[in-house]
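#lab-general

N.A. 3:47 PM
ok so I finally got the sequence cleaned up, no stray characters, all 326 residues accounted for. can someone with queue access submit it? mine expired

B.Y. 3:52 PM
send it over

N.A. 3:53 PM
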Amino acid sequence: MAIGDQIKALLRSHIEGDDEHFLSVAMQVAAYEAKRGHGKLADELRGLIDEAKARQHVLGAKKPTPIAQPRGDLANLLNASYPKVRLSDMVLSQGLRTRLSRIVKEHRQFTKIRSHGLSPRRKLLLIGPPGTGKTMTASALAGELGLPLFLVRLDALITKFLGETAAKMRLIFDAATNTRAVYFFDEFDAIASQRGLTNDVGEVRRTLNSFLQMIEQDDSNSLIVAATNHAEILDYAVFRRFDDVVEYEAPTPELVIETLKSRLGTFISPGFAWKSLANAAASLSYADLTRATQEAIKDAIIHDRDSVNENDLLRSFEDRRSIQKR
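B.Y. 4:20 PM
back already:
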């Protein structure tokens, strides 16, 4: 980041009251001065930053990222939310939980990592079947880090007019520099499919080229998260632009049982045949399992019962399968 951009970032974070971002950029300035051979100045800056952190700790002044709302042209491109969901709310395989937890830890140590000239993994591609937790992961990352979640509205981003989509894409990446948040491109294949596909059109190709260029140049403090159910049609150049590609799979029988227990909560009936239920739920996604348990619980509430029985769940499983076939 050029020193001019760093000064602007310092001013923006001060105006927004984002102390964490302010100190992060200040540490980048110190590292920049050290590289230029200004060791004394760099040491003085680091000393001031350490003093500010200590003061925050003593006064309990660590503040959450301030609420931000997209304005102007961005208001049509981004939907803002402030998720409270956490990784602990998700049912994940141990390997996947470890990978996501590491990403969170890296961002919680953002300043320390940046001070060594490194960057946490900020550009994530989530791939896998529908309903396996990709969208919820974006929310959980935002919730864990206390950041806004900005969902990119692809319907507003992609236009038929030459160059207009690229200009809108630039607004999004400029916003990522100005406001630290999780920027989420859902159904990413809509802009990142292979450029040789027969149904491809010129503006879609230009959109992908713009995205590839901008994400490669991006050096913000934000997380850029993209998700797709169709990794097989993504352009090959996409994968190497991301710091990490995280793959999601349908739940195993063990994870089906864990999901059912988690979602049923106090509505579990004693003596459930969990293995039989897991077999009956084969081919259902995490999202299907969640909806099935919700429907079963609502049915129990309507009939003044304080628990769900196995037949309620089996019926809900079949309802979900019938919806899948439509």
